[in-house]
Write a structure and sequence with these properties.
Helices cover 0% and strands 48% of the residues. By secondary structure, it is mainly β. Strands 2, 4, 5, 6, 9, 10 and 11 form a seven-stranded mixed beta sheet that branches.
Length: 128
């Protein structure tokens, strides 16, 4: 059983930065695509970004491209997301997720239904 635990959320002012981490345990996640999603109350879980198994390829939602950066350290079973130039609309609960299936289209990884394991989430609140 895979367990994912996010950390690093908090309350920040608009324009600030945060670094989120996702720790995987149970088995190595190095062979799987890892994604980040965020969710506001009453809203669907929204794709933020994803990183390939070897960390070479990343893919971001248009709303965060250029401000968010995902990386991973497979030796430590960790995935990171650096968030810069935060905006109030970035507020939400951020989840990391693991997709255990290979999809040929990177757009498939924007769907939360393509991920098999989820963390409990970490709250990010951006005040203006």
């Amino acid at each position: 059983q895979v367990q994912l635990v996010e950390s690093g959320g908090g309350l920040v002012l608009a324009g600030g930065s945060l670094g989120l981490s996702c720790s995987a345990s149970g088995r190595t996640s190095s062979m799987y695509v890892m994604g980040w999603f965020r969710q506001d109350p009453g809203e669907e879980r929204e794709f933020v970004g994803a990183i390939s198994r070897n960390g070479v390829l990343t893919y971001y939602a248009d709303s965060v491209r250029g401000r968010f950066s995902i990386s991973r350290d497979n030796a430590k079973n960790l995935v990171y997301m650096q968030i810069n130039s935060l905006k109030p609309e970035d507020t939400g609960v951020y989840y990391c997720a693991e997709s255990s299936t290979y999809y040929s289209q990177r757009s498939d990884y924007t769907s939360h239904g393509k991920y098999d394991y989820w963390g409990q989430g970490t709250q990010v609140t951006v005040s203006s």
